[in-house]
Amino acid sequence: MVIERDPGEWFVGGTMAAFSGPPPFGWVQRIDADTLAPLVTSPELPCGEHVWCGAILAHANGSIHSINGSYLHRLDPHDLSIQAEIALPADRAHNGLLSLSDGSLITKDLRLEGQGGTTITRLDPDTLEIRDSLVLPEGSMGRIGADRTPTGDHVYVPGTEHLWRIDVTTEAMTVDQWKPRYRTANDDWGLAWDSCVSDGAAWVMDCGDIESVRMIHNVEPNGRYPEPPGRAMSWRRDAPWAGAQRLLRMSLDDPNDIQIVEPFGTPGGGIIAPPVHVPEHQMAIAWDSINGGLAGVSTAEATLNVAWQLDVRSSMQPVVFPESGELVINDFTADGFDDIIVVDIATGELIDRVSTGSRIANGMFLTAGGDRDLFYCSTLYLSRIIWQ
Predict the structure, then answer these.
(1) Distances, alpha carbon 258 to alpha carbons 116, 147, 189, 277, 283, in Å
(2) Of 364, 359, 360, 357, whose CA–CA distance to 385 is shortest?
(3) pLDDT for position 376
(4) Cα atoms in the Cβ-side hemisphere of radius 13 Å centred on 3
(5) 5, 80, 84, 172: which is deepest, by most CB within 10 A?
(6) Preceding omega of 221 cis (within 30 degrees of 0)
(7) What pLDDT does residue 363 have?
C-alpha cells in the first residue's frame, strides 16, 4: 500500500511474494509521486519467512512503521534505516497495523478456523516494546479496525464466528461484552475480512477464507512451499462453501441487531477485502470476486435493500470520494487485465475506466492522492491514476 507522511512525501511498502526459493522479506520505499521511481529504499526487512501483504503507517513521532510477517520495524523517514525491530510474540503472518489515539501501535496475527486464538499485541511506537497483549478465544483473519472513545479506543477484530470488540485505555486492553455472532462453525459461509465502522454499525462481508488464503495460512512459515504453487494460488478457484456472498450490518449498540443481505444470491461467493459504507449517500457497497458483481445496498430504510448492480469483477479495497459521490475500485476483466473503474455511488453508473496493464488482481489497498488521483498496488504493478 501507499501512504503519505508530510504533504507530497509518499511511501510504498510490501513483502516479496516468494512462495518458494530464497527467503521473503519486507521492504519500504520513498517514491517520487510523478514518476513512481524509488528515491530511497529500506534494507531488506525480516518477516520470519512468512509471505503475506504487510502494512505501513506514518506515525506522529515522525517514523514510518512497517509490519511484515511476524516482525515490526520502525524506520527513519529520510533514509529508511532501521531504528527499532521486534519479532512479535506470535510466529505467524500479521494482518494490519494501527496507531491508536494515545499513539500506541496495535496489531494481530492471522489464524484460520481451527488454528487457535488470535494474539492482539500493543506496542510502544518509539521503542517497539510490548505494552500488553491478549489472546482471543477465536482465530481472526481480517484486519483490525478502530474507533475513538471518551476513554481511549475500541478495536474491532473479525473472529471465526463473532466480531469482537476490545476496549483499549492507556492502562490496559480488555475484551468487551459486545460480540455479535455472524456465523457458526462449518456452516455454509466462510470467514469475515475487515470491518468498516460507519454510522453506528460495523459492516463486514464473509466468505473470505477462499482456497488460496487457506493454502497460504495452512503451512508454516505461512505461504512457503518447496515448489512454486502456481495457479493453485488463484483467487478465482471455486469457493469451498455453498453460501452466496453476504453483507452484514452489526449495530455497535446491540450485538443482537444484525442485518444480512445477499446482493447477488449466487452460490459459492467469495471475496478478499472488506465492504464500504458511505453515510453521506446512505449506501453500502459489496461485491463477489469469485462469481463477479458489484452492488449498491441502500441503508436509507430500516432494512437493507439492493439499489443497483454492476457486472464487474472487483477484488480490491476501494476508495470513496463522498463529495462527488464516486467509488473507485478495480475490475478484473474477462480478457485478464486489471482495470480501475469509477462508479456513481447513488446509481451504479459506470463513469470511467482505465487499464492498469496488470495481468494480476489482488486485494490490496487503493490510496487517495488528495487531488482527484489515487495510487494502485498489485503483485506486478504500481500505478498513479489521475482523472478530471
Answers:
(1) 26, 19, 16, 15, 17
(2) 357
(3) 96
(4) 16
(5) 80
(6) yes
(7) 87
Task: Give CA–CA dist 301/277, Å, rounded.
Answer: 14
* Interval 371-378 mean pLDDT: 92
Neighbours of 33 (CB within 10 A): 17
Distance CA 236, CA 211 (A): 9
Helix ranges restricted to H, the chain: 211-217
With vertex at residue 97, the alpha carbon angle to CA 179 and CA 219, rounded to the nearest 5 degrees, is 85
Contacts of 151 (CB under 8 A, 6+ apart): 167, 169
Cα separation, 308 vs 204, in Å, equals: 19
Tell whether the torsion through CA atoms of 134, 139, 143 and 149 is positive or negative: negative
Amino acid at 271: I
For residue 267, give the C-alpha cell.
452460490
Nearest to 103 by CA among 133, 73, 58: 58
- Which grid cell sits at 221? 512459515
Using CA atoms, how far apart are residues 23 and 346, in angstroms rounded to an integer?
Answer: 46
Q: For residues 198 and 203, give the distance between their C-alpha atoms in angstroms, rounded to a whole number.
A: 8
pTM exceeds cut of 0.85: yes
